Amino acid sequence: MTAGPPSDPAGERVPLDEVMLAMDVVDTLRHERALVEAELDSDKRAAKLTARVKSIYESQGIEVSDGVIAEGVKALEEDRFVYEPPDRTLAVRLAEVYVERGKWARRGLVVAFVAVLVWFAFAIPADMRRRAAINGFQARVASLQHEARGLVSRARELDRAVQNVPERGPASVKAILAHAVSALRTSGQDAGALSAALDPGPDPETYPDAKGELDRKLDEHRERASEIDSALVAVDRQIRAATSLLGIGGELARVMTRLEGIDVSDATRSQLEGMQARVGLAVDDGDAAGARSELKQLNARVDRIVTAHGKKAAQTSELGRLSRALHGVELDEKNRAELDGLRTRVEQAIAAGDDRTAERELARLGQLVTVLAQEYELRIVSGVWRRPKRQRDKHNYYIIVEAISPTGEHLRLRVANEESGRAQRVKQFGVRVAKSVYEEVKADKLDNGLIDNAVFAVKKRGRREPEYRFPVLGGRITRW
Fold first, then answer.
1. Are residues 330 and 389 in the same domain?
2. Is 365 or 181 the better-scoring residue by pLDDT?
3. Which of 106, 262, 405, 466 has the fewest CB atoms within 10 Å of its CB?
4. CA distance 315 to 345
5. 343 lies in the same domain as 382
6. Domain extent for 420
7. 341 and 393, same structural domain?
8. Do 428 and 359 reside in the same domain of the chain?
9. pLDDT class of 165 with cuts at 50, 70, 90
10. How confident is the model at residue 4 (pLDDT cuts 50, 70, 90)?
C-alpha cells in the first residue's frame, strides 16, 4: 500500500481537499474499470480520458483540474489508495479478536450455555437414579428394622402368654408347653440378634458402590426374619392348643352339669359316658381339634336331652293347668268322656317322648276346655237376609248377634262362615233362622225402636253349645 498524500514537484504538501478530491477521482476511475483499461492501453488517448472524467465531475457541479485527474490516473496505475491486508501474525489475530470481542463474547456465552445444558442432561438423571437407589435401599432397611422389632415384641408377648398357662392338666398339655418354651427361647434370641444387626444398619450412601454385597446381606436378613416369624407362629399355635386342651376339661364339666336333675334312661346314660370318654382320650393324645369335635357332639346330644326335658315339663304343666280349669264345673257324660280321652292321649305322648303328638293333643284339649269354660249371652244386634249364589229365587234370613260375658266384656268367638267355608274369630256373626223368627225380631224392633227381647241364646259353663231361645236353622255367616 502506498501511503501519504500527493505532493507537487517542488516538494510542498498538497492541501487536504485536493488529496480527498484525488482519492475520489481514483475511486471513480476504479468504478469505470472497463473504460480505464481501454483508455490506458493507448497513451495517445490520455487527453480523451482526462476530458471524460472531467465531464463526469462537471455534471455533478464539481470543478476538477487536469492536474488532479492526471494525478488520479497515475495513482490508479501505482495502486495507491488500495488496501492491502497485513500478514496473519499472532499480533494481528489478537488484534482482530480484540476488535471483535463483543461477537466472540456472545459466541463464548452460547458455547458455555450449551455445555451446561449437556452436563445437566446427563448429570441430573444420573444423580436422580443414584438417589432413588439409595432411598429404595434405605426404605427396605427401615422396613426390615421395623419387622425385626416386631418379632422381638411378639416373642415377649408369647413369653408372657406361656407363663400364664396353668402348670396342670394331662401330660400332653405339659409336653406341648415344654416344646413351646424351648422354641420360644431360640426364636427370641434370634429375633434380638437380628434387630441388633440391623440397628443402626449400613450407611445408605455407600449403597451405589456396594450394591451387590448390601443386597445379599439384606436378603439374608429378610430370609432369617421369615424363619423367625414362622417359628413364632408355630409357638403361638402350640400355646393356643395347650390352652384349648386345658379349657376343654372345664367345658366338659359344664356340659355335664346341665344334666343335673334330669332323669335319663340307662341307654342314654351309657351313650353319654362313651362320648365323655372319647373327649378325654383326645385330650390325653394332645388332639385339641379332635377333642373339640367330640365335645361338640356331646354338647349337641345334651342340648337335645335338655330341650326334650324342658318340653316335657312344659307339656306336663300345661296338662295340669287345663285339667284344673274345669274343676267344679258340671259336665255332661259326653264332654267328660272326651276330656278324659284327650288327657290320656297327652299323658301317653309325653311319657313316650312324642312331642308332635303331645303338642297336637294338648291343642285340642285346650280348645275344648276353652269352649266348655266360656259363659256368655248372645244378644240380638240386628237382622239381615241374603240370596244364596246358586239359588237366586230363595232368601236366607239371619239374626246378627254378639257374645257378652257376665262382666260385660264383648267376646270374640270362632265361627265358621257357611258361605265361604272359612272359620274366623269375630265379635258379631249371623245365625240363620226361619223367616218367621226374622219377622218377629223385626216387629219387636219396629214397635218402639228397641229390641225388648234381646237375649237370643245363653251359653253356660260345662256346655259346648249355647241354649237358643228362638228356633234356629244352624247356619252362620261372619260377613254381610
1. no
2. 365
3. 106
4. 12
5. no
6. 375-477
7. no
8. no
9. confident
10. very low
Task: List pLDDT tens digits, range 448-463.
Answer: 889 999 999 999 999 9
Q: Do 66 and 116 meet the contact criterion of CB atoms below 8 Å apart?
A: no
Question: What does the pLDDT read at residue 456?
Answer: 97
In a domain, 469, yes or no: yes
Check pLDDT > 90 for residue 49.
no
Among 38, 34, 80, 32, smallest CA distance to 54 is for: 32
Of 324, 354, 371, the residue at which a domain comes to its end is: 371
Within a domain: 328: yes
- Total number of domains constituting the chain: 3
Residue 443 lies in a domain: yes
Residues 22 and 54 in one domain: yes
pTM: 0.49
Residue 75 has pLDDT above 80, yes or no: no
Average pLDDT over residues 278-307: 91
Q: Does one domain contain both 324 and 385?
A: no
- Residue of 362, 312, 314 lying closest to 339 (CA atoms): 362
In a domain, 156, yes or no: no
